[in-house]
């Protein structure tokens, strides 16, 4: 949409300013985020995102604005899977509620850098080697089939154990946590706290999910600015959304099916774009429709209590070095 550097600079400065305001003012004193507070912040981030989309419409017209909105909805929807993993990670490491916002905050800053690199590289490669769009499309169809086949039984983060094991082997890890600190001094040495290991797992999780979400938005737009800003806006709202729906995840058990269908649809869209380009308005309607149907179906056909209990992860033994 734009070749100028200034929109990139302005967008990132605004995002960093909002994050500084968030952590430095509204969350200066650590506390457990209540559902009411999380809902308010979710509405704030969504409103800011829609206002930004309106700015794109004003500057670039209807087409780029619809591309941005579709990419935003796809990224936001695919981020729901991240929430399941965050719940598992925070539960495994016994992260107190008052420290979870801090981990997600710094995790998002790392996600900005990683996704910016992947998006810029991805759009440049697709622009130079257009046949890669078909590779990405086939990959998304494969991922969709795998997601639909696995259901809720497959571990969504197989790398977590590896990340933890290598971190403990390569980094000096303190035996005990130090509140919300990522670094502490123990036995006269500077060490990382167990909370830092949690942060690394969160970063690794986001990188794994970016491998699905970025090819998906490349099937919607080839504009690096649209892809990056829609990704960032979706991630910004992910933190507050986590605290809103963390207690409702089991109720929306069919969302994973909808995500698989969405990935498959975008993959097929990429594979056939040489023959027929699906209008962006239709794409947005199909994606939004999948999400609405999945949410309503989850409420109408709730998961049986015995199935919900069987699907819960067994609690690991409490280990002193994992407390934070």
From TrEMBL:
InterPro entries noted in UniProt: Integral_membrane_TerC, Integral_membrane_TerC_rswitch
Keyword Glycoprotein: no
Keywords: Membrane, Transmembrane, Transmembrane helix
Tree of life domain: Bacteria
GO CC terms in record: membrane
Sequence intervals crossing the membrane: 6-26, 38-57, 69-91, 103-125, 131-148, 195-218, 224-245, 252-272, 278-301
Keyword Membrane recorded: yes
Subcellular location: Membrane
Membrane topology: Multi-pass membrane protein
Assigned protein family: Belongs to the TerC family.
Stated name of the protein: TerC family protein
Organism: Corallococcus llansteffanensis
The organism's taxonomic lineage, starting at the top: Bacteria, Pseudomonadati, Myxococcota, Myxococcia, Myxococcales
């Amino acid at each position: 949409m734009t070749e100028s550097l200034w929109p990139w600079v302005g967008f990132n400065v605004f995002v960093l300013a909002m994050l500084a305001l968030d952590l430095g003012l509204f969350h200066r004193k650590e506390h457990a985020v209540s559902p009411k507070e999380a809902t308010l912040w979710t509405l704030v981030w969504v409103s800011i995102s829609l206002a930004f989309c309106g700015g794109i419409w004003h500057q670039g017209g209807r087409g780029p604005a619809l591309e941005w909105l579709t990419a935003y909805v796809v990224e936001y929807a695919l981020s729901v899977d991240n929430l399941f993993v965050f719940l598992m990670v925070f539960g495994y490491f016994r992260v107190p509620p008052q420290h979870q916002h801090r981990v997600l905050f710094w995790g998002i800053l790392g996600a900005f850098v990683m996704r910016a690199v992947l998006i810029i590289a991805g759009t440049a490669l697709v622009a130079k080697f257009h046949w890669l769009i078909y590779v990405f499309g086939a990959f998304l169809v494969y991922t969709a089939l795998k997601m639909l086949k696995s259901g809720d039984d497959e571990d969504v983060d197989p790398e977590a154990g590896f990340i933890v094991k290598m971190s403990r082997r390569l980094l000096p890890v303190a035996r005990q946590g130090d509140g919300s600190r990522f670094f502490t001094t123990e036995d006269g040495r500077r060490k990382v706290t167990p909370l830092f290991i949690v942060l690394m797992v969160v970063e690794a999780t986001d990188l794994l999910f970016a491998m699905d979400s970025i090819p998906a938005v490349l099937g919607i737009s080839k504009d690096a600015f649209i892809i990056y800003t829609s990704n960032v806006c979706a991630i910004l709202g992910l933190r507050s959304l986590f605290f809103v729906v963390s207690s409702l995840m089991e109720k929306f058990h069919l969302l994973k099916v909808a995500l698989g269908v969405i990935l498959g649809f975008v993959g097929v869209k990429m594979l056939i774009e040489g023959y027929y380009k699906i209008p962006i308005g239709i794409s947005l309607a199909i994606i939004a429709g999948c999400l609405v149907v999945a949410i309503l179906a989850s409420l109408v056909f709730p998961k049986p209590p015995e199935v919900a209990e069987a699907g819960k992860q067994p609690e690991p033994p409490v280990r002193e070095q994992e407390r934070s």
